[in-house]
Amino acid sequence: MGPAVPRQAKGFNLNTIGWSTFVIFGAGFVGEILGGTLADRLRAKGYGTNVVMRSLLGASSVIVTAGLVGVTIVGDPIAAVVLLSVVLFFLRWVGLFWAVPATLGGRTNAGVLGGAMNLSGNIAGFVTPIAVGFIVGATGGYTGALLYFVGSAIIMGAAVLALDYSRRLPV
């Protein structure tokens, strides 16, 4: 027998994990569509860009943070799937971020801002799995890794509230 593998599970078998993943990512798909639709409707009603972006993205970061904290606390697998579905719904809601380059950069700088956002996302895309691997390897559980994501959500919340969406960035 090989060495013991540290793990923390909620009692899922492979079939249950497949359906749970489908539900979680399905919620994310719905969240992305509804987030954009709501933003468009609020803008059409005359709400300013700062109000729309800060309220939708700020609320998203609060709900994502609370949901991830909840996942670290609950022991029930169904509750964990529900919380992760809510988290991904509001995390995909943040697809609104792709409106930021055009909003802040206009025609002349939208590509540069979009490229910078993409670069940042790609850096996080390879740093995060490494960090999570170190955390899980060091602790033998996923709570620390979930708290890493909680910290990321808090940083996201601070960033979306600090941006002034009503002014273009200087050229």
Distance between termini? 63 Å
User: How many strands in all?
Assistant: 0
Average pLDDT, all residues: 87
Rg, Å, rounded: 18 Å
Helix content: over 70%
Major sheet: none
Residue windows where pLDDT falls under 50 for at least 5 positions? 1-8
Strand content: under 5%
Order of helices and strands: HHHHH
Structural class: mainly alpha
Number of continuous helical runs = 5
What shape does the CA trace take? globular
Question: Gist?
Answer:
With 171 residues, the protein is mainly alpha-helical. Helix content is 78%, strand content 0%. Residues 1-8 have low confidence and may be disordered.
Question: What would your notes on this structure say?
Answer:
- Helix content is 78%, strand content 0%.
- The chain is mainly α and 171 residues long.
- Residues 1-8 have low confidence and may be disordered.
List keywords for this structure.
single chain, 171 residues, mainly alpha, disordered N terminus
Per-chain topology:
Blueprint: H1 14-44, H2 49-73, H3 77-93, H4 100-139, H5 143-162
